[in-house]
Amino acid sequence: TFFSRAFTILPNRLLNLMEQAYTAAEKAALILPRVASLISLLACIGTACETWVDHRHQRGSVVSRTQLVLQLPLLCYCAAYAVGSIAAPSGVWGAHGTVSTCEVQGFMIQFAVTAYVPLDMLISTVFILIIRYNWNEKQLRGLEKWFHILVWPLVMACTVIPLMMDMYNSSWETCWLDVAPTGCDEDENIECERGEYAWVFHILAYVLSLSSLFYSIYAMLFIYLFVKRVEDRSRQYDFSSSEEGELAARARSRAVGIQGILYAGVTALGGLPLVFSAIFTLVMGHQSLFLNTIGNIMFTLIGLFNMLVTFRSRTTQTTTYGRYLRSVNSKAR
Question: Of 320, 228, 295, which is closest to residue 81 (Cα–Cα)?
């Protein structure tokens, strides 16, 4: 019967996958980021639920709306990375997919990377404009409108063009921008069948990611130094009870500043380990499996870090799932 054949074939296939010539460290490098991405996926769902409720009740600010939109690339990235090498047609431990599944995974990752970068930079910019230049919601909504008009066509172009040019192929951990067969770009005896110009979009993706990382670090330093300067200046004066409004405004500025620093810090915390891994590769001439694995884990955990920062600014959660995640976070502490 079908079920008896399934229970016979599937275990044998799994056994064959486990017996392929990969070390325990290499298998861990493929599995651990998947676990981290699943955790981030659950966290992203919680953040999306909370910010969606805010939007429906018309209480959402530009920051919360951008947070809601930001969950889309994060969800795509975590879901695609959770599948891992299973989507690849061949050439890596655990590969059990087809060219089509590989292209779907690569499309999702490319969309996630190219969409996350401008959205993350928008959030950092919004906090700078609020804290330093006292922009109100009306001014921020104008910026938000033009941002979406200009950015999304570029994001879709950077995602669709590689798909049309067969650039989404197995790249060991996942399918992304690479050549096929693997290594054909480094071996003159092997002719590349797919992804000949994938390196162009690969470089573009890394440039965008580094731009977002350095801009986040700049935003953290800018907000921190500005809030610190305001705090230092305020300590020179003795506020009386008649100046409670000014004290409240200063407290609000400090709270917004801290939240802005944390939002910007999410990208820095998730992206810096991969930068260190890349620097090690350039200096030493070979890749460190340990550093690369840590970098992949930290980058996939950006969704979790984002949820922790978002929930920090909320005294209560409006959804059952959000309250459950807060209770889990409280127990973990």
Answer: 295
Burial class (CB in 10 A: 0-12, 13-18, 19+), 149: exposed
Asked if 43 and 325 touch (Cβ cutoff 8 Å), the reply is yes
Asked if the model's pLDDT at residue 105 lies above 90, the reply is yes
pLDDT digits (tens, 9 = 90+) for 181-192: 877 777 778 888
**157 CA to centre of own chain:** 20
Q: Where are the alpha helices (DSSP H) in the chain?
A: 2-18, 24-56, 62-83, 99-133, 137-164, 198-234, 244-284, 289-300, 302-312, 320-332
> 88 and 176 in contact (C-beta within 8 Å)?
no
Per-residue model confidence (pLDDT) at position 79: 93
**The tokens 């298998």 sit on which residue?**
27
Cβ atoms of 219 and 124 within 8 Å: the answer is: yes
Measured distance CA(279)–CA(298) in Å, rounded: 16
Nearest to 198, CA basis, from 174, 172, 173, 180: 180
